[in-house]
Amino acid sequence: MKKTIAMLAMTISAGLAFAGAAHAQQKTMSIGTGGTGGVYYPLGGAVANVLSKNLPNVQATAEVTGGSVDNLKLIGAGKSELAFTMADAALDALKGEDKFKSGKVPLQALLVMYPNRMHVVTVEGTGIQTMADLKGKRVSTGSPGSATEVMAFRVIEAAGLDKDKDMKRERLGVAESVNAIKDRKIDAFFWVGGIPTAAVTDLAATPGVKLKLIDHSDLFEKMNAKYGKLYSPGKIKAGSYPGLDKDNAITEVWNLIVTGDKMSNEDAYAIVKTLVEKKADIVAVHKEAQSFSLDNQVQTRSPIPFHPGALKYFKEKGIGG
Each residue of 79-134: pLDDT tens digit? Predict the structure, then answer.
């Protein structure tokens, strides 16, 4: 009898150990990305694949979302473990400002990704040459849950325009904006993203359409004076899109991968190590992942404090964080 009980106890404990191991293998990780026409979504898919493949107990999935603002709200609600976000939207969330007045989101940065470039997009025939020419036009400022909208409003404001009075405003994602401009339902749209953005490439490659990107790099100082040192001048180089024959002078802002305040140091360390060391697998999907490099992991590029687990990895690699 004793032998039977001992055997039974061993069987139960082995079963529990097995169940525990199975449970450990099924740590699901939801990554908030963006719309299907942008860069966050394909890049998020590549990040999810790399994490799932290289971390033994992680099953990561990239979720289609409205973008940064939605992603940060998902973190706040405990519905996502990781979020792709622009630095400006993340700072608003941390402080509980603008679109986050209903409550602060506790955030920690895992990785500085790449600079997001503001595209102010139009086509030949709209009469738009400068930011001032947007007055009286039909303009999309990005989808409601996106950081495109956050930054677009700041660019419009710095240009001395009123987003509500000076234009007929639509709130479309990048893929929808491209379709609307092709159908002549809008005259211009804002999109902040990596280079190249698939939807903008699609517009530029459309027969009978000549892409025009509007210069606005002169506005970054005004934006920083009001919102903090988040923005810098940059360029979308000639040839980045079909028919783009000269450099476009723009404003840009860094992208981050952030988490909330629940992630363990061990998990954060493992995620950051994997993303930096398996960068080549992510670059194969989108070349903006070239920026997932250690020299970009400096706190000046992120208004969000780094997670202690991320800092541990950076210090091991001789980076101050």
Answer: 999 999 999 999 999 999 999 999 999 999 999 999 999 999 999 999 999 999 99
- Report DSSP state, residue 110: E
The residues, ordered by sequence, that sit 6+ positions from 309 with a Cβ below 8 Å of its Cβ are 263, 264, 265, 266, 267, 268, 269, 270, 271, 272
Residue 111 · residue 297 · CB < 8 Å: yes
Contact 231, 252 (CB under 8 A): yes
Are 188 and 48 within 8 A, CB to CB?
A: no
What distance in Å separates the CA atoms of residue 12 and residue 108, rounded to the nearest whole number? 40
Q: Which residue has the tokens 């005004």?
A: 222
What residues pair up with 116 in beta bridges, in sequence order?
253
DSSP labels, 76-91: HTTS-SEEEEEHHHHH
At residue 230's C-alpha, the angle toward residues 188 and 291, to 5°, is: 85
Alpha carbons 42 and 52: distance in angstroms, whole number? 15
Burial profile 30-43: b = 16 or more Cβ within 10 angstroms, e = fewer: bbbbbbebbbbbbb
Centroid of chain to Cα 112? 10
Alpha helices in the chain (DSSP H): 2-25, 40-54, 68-76, 87-95, 147-158, 174-182, 198-204, 220-227, 265-277, 279-283, 308-316
The closest alpha carbon to 166, from 201, 189, 136, belongs to 136
Q: Under a CB-based contact definition with an 8 Å cutoff, are residues 283 and 39 in contact?
A: no
pLDDT digits (tens, 9 = 90+) for 32-54: 999 988 899 999 999 999 999 99
pLDDT, position 19: 47
* CA dihedral (73, 201, 291, 153) positive or negative: negative
